[in-house]
Fold this protein.
Amino acid sequence: MINPPFDSVSNPTMDTSAGAPVLVVEDERDLAEEIRLELQASGHPVQLSETVDEGLRAARSGPAVLVIDRMLQGQDGLSIIEALRAEGNATPALVISALSSVDDRITGLKAGGDDYLVKPFDIRELSARVEALLRRRGDARLTRLQVGLLEMDLVERTVQCEGKPVDLLPREFTLLEYFMRRPGQVVTRAMLLEDVWNFKFMAQTNVVDVQIGNLRRKLDPAGARRFVVNIRAVGFKLNADQ
Amino acid sequence: MRISEVFKAQPFRLALAFAVAVSVATTAAFAFIYLQVSSAEFQRVGAMLVEEAAASQGDTEAELRRGFELPLTRDIRRLDFAALIDVEGRVAFGKAASIPSIPVDGKAHFFPDQLARTEDGAREPAVFVARRLTEGGTLVLGRNLREVYILQETLLRTLAIALLPTALLILLIGAIIARRASHRFERVHGAIVRIMNGELDSRLPVSNKDGDIDRVAHAVNLMLDEIARLLEQLKSAGDTIAHDLRTPLAVARAKIERALNNETGIEQLREAMEAALAQIEKASVTISAILRISAVENGARETRFRDFDLAAICEQVFDFYEPLAESKGVMMIADTAKPVPVRGDQDLMREALSNLIDNAIKFTPAGGSVRIGARMTEGRPFVLVSDTGVGVPPQERAKIFDRFYRGERSGQTPGHGLGLSIAETIANLHGFKLTVEDNNPGARFELRATSSAPAVRLAREPA
């Protein structure tokens, strides 16, 4: 399944991650090929490795982000991350695995993985998470955020749009903060569930869409602007241009 | 079972070993009796002779001659031999050739072949006593031990004859027991072979006697019942999975095929692809839910359990779902009394509650309400999720937690029939019981801690 590049959305202005090389360590050739095509379509050169040894060598040559399968021909891909971390190498890593028990996720993150994705996954979910890892440079100590016409005061917990205050419920504020820390970045429903609501599973109904809809209406009651746009079948993005 | 197999059977080998052991013990007992009896007889004969010699010590030669000239065989003392050697060393009377060389000490001395039998001259075992007389001569008395030996032989023969039938009897009883036991084992074995060959309805034979084998057979039968039930459940789950996956895949396939066959424009092709993709997504969601159940079952270990406030989790989930309910025109009411301390996995509990609330909102029409309650009742955590929706008819209440079960009233409401299964699995992991009641109207799900729920560590404040 090859998906067209994200439709109808212009490239974000603050994109510093374009062209960053990605190392994919995956021994299932078909899946590796799909990942390569998807990431290349987003503009990243991709290097593929199939074994732990090969992957570790390639990882030392300086890719911007790692995508590592846990099960590699009888070896645990986590050993690559552990070896890198022991060497002081902090390259962000996304762990993918068919192991889906609750503990495996914890094990993966404890070993130094930065994100964890369970098979079967949507290839665009993986792409969105790789982008998220590439851009994880936001400063947590900021007290004010500004994206286009939106301004957020993290101390006073107030939001202004074009200088006019917007009245948000606490849950809406948290949701907007998450977007404002990732301007122009694709955010999937699963990422929102995990990071904003602490839900480590997929909710059945379209709760996320309803929450986003509420936020949209409050930011732009007239419906003239598109602050938060839908990325079809993937998730959402805060439009930095507006 | 063939006869040769009887001998190989474990019970028969046990009977054989038992027979050998009994035979050895009996032989030992018989040997002891034999030795005791024969030695006592030797002692008795010897002692009699010694006594006789002692009694004759003071007698004169004439007295002795008179006494011993009486026919010896008729003598109650049954002396077979008597001789007197005078002071000068001459044999005063008695057969000189038969006198053995023994010390003159008045004690009994046994000789294996000293005394000749009168009739044929064969030598036989005998006992002799020699004693110095008061007068100065030496008296030698002897007795044939033939009778003692005959007694010994008789005893030996009797014991040997008695031993054989005893051993045979034990072997026979052993063989009978072995045969009966083998017969039962054979029947059990036959039943197991039938079950292995696929006759899962077969059961092990159980007699009405409450023996060891019966107890084992009964337990195995109960186990088989459980396996059959699980297999049946697995089979129907498998059928449902196949159906649930095949339907969206068939739809997706039909859409793609139709689009390919009709030469349509790029826009129509695109639409068809998107519709097909949505169907594949549906199948994918079902697979994820199936995997989720096994993940929950395999992954939740008590090592990850922490203390937390279940009421706070309820409020979070409430907060998360409220906009959805609002958009459907369903009112949500929270009724929590903090804290409700629970020990467990917060993430999983949040998932269970979400599934219940998601479900409640889904089946409640606009204008209805969903209530979430959390409190302690009788010292135990209690959570309630009730709605005013379609409800669950009594005959479906036991089934709605089964995997893939979708109630008659679900109709076109989307869902994969696994949400409540996941919720129940999580509840069980935490020692909670999930039940459904009538809410008049609507359904009322209750989540109650049972006695097997892990105890909250009182030292720490709930998170």
Summary: The two ends of chain B are 69 Å apart (CA to CA).
